[in-house]
Amino acid sequence: KAGVTQTPRYLIKTRGQQVTLSCSPISGHRSVSWYQQTPGQGLQFLFEYFSETQRNKGNFPGRFSGRQFSNSRSEMNVSTLELGDSALYLCASTASGGLTGELFFGEGSRLTVL
Amino acid sequence: GQSLEQPSEVTAVEGAIVQINCTYQTSGFYGLSWYQQHDGGAPTFLSYNGLDGLEETGRFSSFLSRSDSYGYLLLQELQMKDSASYFCAVSANTGGFKTIFGAGTRLFVKA
């Protein structure tokens, strides 16, 4: 069974640009969550999607958005990039809606903003 | 809102036992999880406690006390490969499911 796949793995952007990151969950998983990870900050919750609906959103500005498609694949978009957006963006999927706590993470997309 | 507290760093020697504590504050608490992350890798699930008590999985055990909003991860017979970051995470149902992570504990295992 394939794991969670995130693309691209690495990318470099400049301030003011926008970026779209993609996540393909494990087959059969309908819940996808996104996290931002920076050194010393742990994983900051961005949003969670289930069956194409955003069920929860973290405390991030409106520049951060996402969506989920009917095949459960998800994308997140960051517009008007700032230097502080440089981070590892992790996607996680779960079959149970996370009720048993087990999230399956992808390897992440490392974004560098110059 | 939600908040989790865990030590930033712990050092132990190979073969020893180490305990990483986690205290949390959240509404809609559902359960406490632990994840391991090696440098450059993705977080991987270690354990989940939905009820009070101890859960054991090989060398790792996890404990939860809902009344104290407290849990811990216990690692026994430490090995060098256990050097990693460990995150506690709270699953909460607040009008929708989400899992909130602590800042992580960096574990250094010395020979």
Keywords:
A: 114 residues; mainly beta; 11 strands; B: 111 residues; six-stranded mixed sheet; five-stranded antiparallel sheet
How would you sum up the major sheet of chain A? 7 strands, mixed
CA-to-CA gap between the ends of chain B?
Answer: 41 Å
Calculate the mean pLDDT score of chain A and round it.
Answer: 93
Order of helices and strands of chain B: EEEEEEEEEEE
The radius of gyration computed from the alpha-carbon positions of chain A, rounded to a whole number of angstroms, is 13 Å
Shape of chain A: globular
Mean pLDDT of chain B: 94
Q: Overall 3D geometry of chain B?
A: globular
Helix percent band of chain A = under 10%
Oligomer: heterodimer
- Our estimate of the beta-strand percent of chain A is over 45%
Q: Please report the total strand number of chain B as a whole number.
A: 11
**Which structural class best describes the helix and strand composition of chain B?**
mainly beta
- The parts of chain A where pLDDT drops under 50 for at least 5 residues are none
**Tally of individual helices of chain B:** 0
Q: Can you summarize the main beta sheet of chain B?
A: 6 strands, mixed
Q: What is the number of helices of chain A?
A: 0
Number of strands of chain A: 11
General description of the model:
The complex is a heterodimer of chains A (114) and B (111). Chain A has 114 residues and is mostly beta strands. In chain A, 0% of the residues lie in helices and 53% in strands. Chain A has strands at 5-7, 10-13, 19-24, 31-38, 42-50, 53-57, 64-68, 74-78, 87-94, 104-105, 109-113. Chain B is mostly beta strands and 111 residues long. In chain B, 0% of the residues lie in helices and 62% in strands. In chain B, the strands form 2 sheets. In chain B, strands 2, 4, 5, 9, 10 and 11 form a 6-stranded mixed sheet that branches. The radius of gyration of chain B is 14 Å and the shape is globular. The chains are: A mainly beta (114), B mainly beta (111). Chain A binds chain B through residues 31, 33, 35, 40-45, 48, 50, 55-56, 58, 90, 92, 97-108, and chain B through 30-33, 35, 41-45, 48, 50, 87, 89, 91, 94-104.
